[in-house]
Specification:
Layout lengths: L2 H20 L13 E5 H11 L1 H21 L5 E7 L21 E10 L4 H66 L6 H36 L5 E5 L2 H5 L8 H11 L1 H23 L4 E8 L8 E8 L8 H44 L5 H17 L5 H36 L5
Parallel strand pairs: 1-4
Antiparallel strand pairs: 2-3, 3-5, 5-6
Helix pairs in contact: 1-4, 1-10, 2-4, 3-4, 4-5, 4-8, 4-11, 7-9, 8-9, 9-11, 10-11
């Protein structure tokens, strides 16, 4: 076979293999030893709700706070004291009692007392406990909101990164086969060495970029696996592309989204509840300045001035020194601190929702400028460029330039699509509701 025909034959073989390689999914590591899990978004969310340990922990915290409400409602236990004496025998020198001891002619008494809580401390304590239980519920739903946002963001990020990885896989596969064929022909003088080196340099550059992209995918998959609480496994997201295509940032008026945020934002509810708790605690601390009363009844067999002496008694602390001044002042300052924090969050709600809608509109405009046929036409041209380069109809620089343009264009398209989806996820997050 003549040298030129031999090279063209090799090129045709490369083209056939490259076309096959273009249809293959990218390799993201040792997938021969690790299973792949294909997931729809709704399935991922169901797994998350069942398995996530942070949510389970926060659920237990709700139970903890509810148990403290039960404790706050309990009344103090009554106190009873009994005495008997003397321990050591007493001998009366005048002979009125020949031998007084612990078991003979002894004195004994009983005292029963009850703490009476004044100034409404019990009711105020119950209100504080109930408010803390409600706060725990808000914290649970805020954690749910945050983790769900992370889950959905990672889900779509992995999908579009994987689409970008396929681009690298296509180019790397094609260039590897070209390099292999060129190396065989270089020693025979059919291919210039500088051309082989140039293609090898492009190949190494692509492999380096591909490796960085795979690491990014693996890091995102790791975070998603932690949220789902599943074993090490490769995740293959399956988004509903038809539903994504129909997303419309103008579906809801801005006023509706802002109103929804004020009603559903759990971080705002937490801020409000924290302010309310600080007010309740302030009232409770003021009530603690009032001392409680202890009431009791006593009986003494011989200890009183008469035999079988009964008495009633009251006891109360005298608030001369401590009137809980420090805790009251601290509680009052805490109200101001929490109220300022609440206003800060309220002020950010409208701006965050507005910015999220603005981003979704901008990304929607960018997405709509893309011709739906463009990616397929570009891929078709890629194959034609490869064939023309093999036939020497175009030079090396034009060939590599088109390959690089194809890569950059496809990566940008994937990035535009991900940014569009992420903008809608931002609206969901900042409104506190699944609007999209």
């Amino acid at each position: 076979m003549q040298p030129i025909k031999r090279v063209l034959f090799i090129f045709l073989m490369i083209n056939t293999m490259s076309s096959t390689a273009l249809a293959q999914p990218p390799s993201t590591g040792a997938k021969t030893t690790v299973d792949t899990l294909s997931l729809k978004l709704e399935d991922a969310e169901n797994m998350f709700l069942k398995n996530n340990l942070l949510l389970l922990s926060q659920k237990y915290n709700i139970d903890v706070q509810k148990a403290l409400v039960i404790q706050a409602k309990l009344y103090p236990n009554p106190n009873i004291s009994i005495y008997n004496g003397p321990i050591l025998p007493i001998h009366d020198a005048q002979g009125r009692f020949d031998s007084v001891g612990f078991l003979k002619k002894n004195d004994y008494g009983i005292n029963v007392s009850q703490l009476i809580i004044l100034a409404g401390k019990r009711n105020k304590s119950i209100k504080v406990a109930e408010a803390n239980a409600k706060l725990a519920e808000y914290q649970f739903y805020d954690l749910l909101r945050t983790l769900k946002y992370t889950l959905r963001s990672d889900f779509f990020n992995i999908y579009y990164l994987q689409q970008s990885a396929k681009v690298y896989a296509k180019e790397i596969s094609a260039l590897q086969q070209i390099v292999a064929a060129f190396n065989q022909q270089k020693d025979k003088g059919y291919i210039a060495e500088k051309e082989v080196v140039r293609i090898q340099a492009q190949l190494y550059s692509l492999q380096s970029e591909y490796n960085d992209l795979i690491n990014q995918i693996n890091d995102t998959e790791s975070e998603l696996r932690l949220i789902l609480q599943i074993k090490p496994i490769y995740i293959n997201p399956i988004p509903n592309l038809d539903a994504i295509e129909k997303l419309n940032p103008l579906q809801y008026p801005l006023a509706t989204l802002i109103d929804t945020a004020y009603k559903n934002r759990t971080d705002l509810q937490i801020a409000k509840q924290t302010t309310d708790i600080s007010k309740l605690n302030y009232n409770y601390q003021k009530a603690l300045a009032v001392p409680d009363l202890t009431a009791g009844l006593s009986y003494q067999k011989y200890g009183g001035y008469v035999e079988s002496f009964q008495s009633a008694n009251l006891a109360i602390d005298l608030p001369f020194f401590s009137r809980n001044q420090g805790n009251i002042k601290s509680a009052k300052s805490t109200i101001n601190m929490n109220a300022a924090s609440q206003k800060s969050i309220e002020a950010s709600v409208e701006e965050q929702v507005f910015r999220a809608v603005q981003k979704s509109i901008d990304n929607q405009k960018m997405y709509k400028t893309i011709d739906a046929k463009f990616p397929k036409d570009f891929e078709r041209l890629l194959n034609e460029v490869l064939i023309n380069y093999q036939k020497r109809n175009i030079g090396l620089l034009d060939f590599l330039d088109f390959y690089d343009s194809y890569k950059q264009n496809t990566l940008q398209l994937n990035n535009i699509q991900y940014n569009r989806v992420q903008a809608f996820e931002d609206i969901n997050f900042y409104t506190g509701a699944t609007m999209y």
